[in-house]
Amino acid sequence: MFARLRPNKKDPSKQRLPNKKILLFLTVAILGMVILLRFLGWISSDERSLLPNVPGLALLEDSTSLVHTIPLPSQTFGADLFTAGLYTQTQGVFPKGTIVLVYTKNNNRFVEIDYLPHVNLQEYLSSFTYPREEIHLTKDQSVWMLTIDTKPRCIDYEDDIPNRCEISKQLIFELDGRLVVIAIDGKSATQGEVLEIAKSILSVDGE
Predict the structure, then answer these.
(1) Cα distances (Å, whole numbers) of residue 15 to 10, 18, 96, 97, 104
(2) Which one, of 171, 56, 65, lies nearest residue 111 by Cα?
(3) Where exactly are the transmembrane stretches of this chain (predicted)?
(4) CB–CB of 111/201 below 8 Å?
(5) CATH fold group of domain 50-202
(6) Distance from C-alpha of 82 to C-alpha of 184, rounded to nearest angstrom
């Protein structure tokens, strides 16, 4: 009689595992592609207006009337109003009627100031998980600083469009039924400058 053959079962612990170098290479390659696609999307021509590229954000051709609509900053540290927009429909945390101002300085985006109607501070803050800090401008007025990116990427357009970086921080406070969000472009503005801009909007002297 023939001996019964038994299947040769391999020890799972001894099965050959994929080469760690190959896995590392694939991981790095995938991560690189994700970063590249994100970067190409960020520098696309659709973003060159400096206004967020979202549906329903209309360019305001006449910005002179803004002074009668919203409290504009009286202190901008030499930055000029470059463009303005109005949300004609709700987009994410920005409701319909939100006004967007973009200030530039030395051919670079300096800050973006958003005026959100009918949005309270806690509602806005709860939408994000970024590190935050409460700052007291005066004993009666507090603002919040969100840190969004500590290493923002930048792009030099090399033409008449001001250069820009990703938003690094946001300063947030309530004013007359609106939420005001001052977004810092990269490292263009310091925290101290943004606090002074906020004070000029609030018309407080910090004393």
Answers:
(1) 7, 10, 59, 62, 61
(2) 171
(3) 21-43
(4) no
(5) Protein Transport Mog1p; Chain A (3.40.1000)
(6) 15
Residue 117 burial (CB < 10 Å; 0-12/13-18/19+)?
Answer: middle
Amino acid found at 22: I
**Which residue, chain included where needed, has tokens 């290479």?**
25
Which tens digits make up the pLDDT trace of 95-138?
A: 999 999 999 999 999 999 999 999 989 989 998 999 999 999 88
Amino acid at 104: T
Element (H, E) at 14: none
CA quadruple 49, 110, 182, 62: dihedral positive or negative?
A: negative
pLDDT in tens, 43-69: 444 444 588 778 889 988 877 888 888
> Do the beta carbons of residue 180 and residue 114 sit within 8 Å?
yes
Distance CA 5, CA 71 (A): 89
Domains in the chain: boundaries: 18-47, 50-202
pTM for the model: 0.75
